[in-house]
Amino acid sequence: MSILTLAGSPSQRSRSSALLRHAAQLLRTRGLAISELGLRDLPAEDLVEGHYAGPAAHALRARVAAADAVLISTPVYKASFSGGLKAVLDLLDEKALAGKVVLPIATGGSPAHLLALEYGLKPVLSALGARHILAGVYATDKQVRIDDDGASVIDDEVRTRLEDSVERLAEQVRPRGVVVNEAFDLGRLALAGGFSV
To answer: Which of 16, 22, 24, 145 is buried most, with the most CB atoms less than 10 Å from its CB?
Structure first.
């Protein structure tokens, strides 16, 4: 099973990207393959001018097509998801998310912006064919902090909600009857340098 993460913030120190990276790491520990993509991976000119026929847009569509699930993160600006993310989504085919499990993740300045997921992002995802959109994870700026060294500090309540959503996503994409051997996965992570044993 292949999972694509799509970061809708241009900033490397983005809170929404920090949540997305945490979700990706949780999925890796479950033995799922993760591919990462962000705004910085696409030429700005292609995004601004909507170069649908360009090589970057073609590669984007291929990566989305190959994924069984897509995690999409965005900061909320002016009560809506990021314009950069919208530019990326505009380069996808009309039914690019059909048959895929989608988990939206967002951060914003206050709890009031939670509705940006429901009334802003989810309708766009539906227009792209997504029918299995998991309950989104939203956090305020106070709930996700980035330290001076770039490490993220995630509020316990947000961490729990994110872990629950990731578990639901993993259950949806894991083939029936497949049992993940946690000892094998932990050993593989240790060999890959993910942590020390």
So the answer is: 16
- Cα 102 from Cα 136, distance rounded (Å): 9
Q: How far apart are CA 153 and CA 132, in angstroms?
A: 29
Q: How far apart are CA 122 and CA 194, in angstroms?
A: 33
Q: Model-level pTM?
A: 0.86
Domain positions in the chain: 2-193
Q: Which residues fall within 8 angstroms of residue 188, CB to CB, at 6 or more apart? A: none
Two tokens, residue 53: 């026929």
Mean pLDDT, consecutive 10-residue stretches, the chain (197 aa), reads: 93 91 95 93 94 95 97 94 96 96 95 88 96 95 90 94 96 65 44 42
- CATH class of the domain comprising 2-193: alpha beta
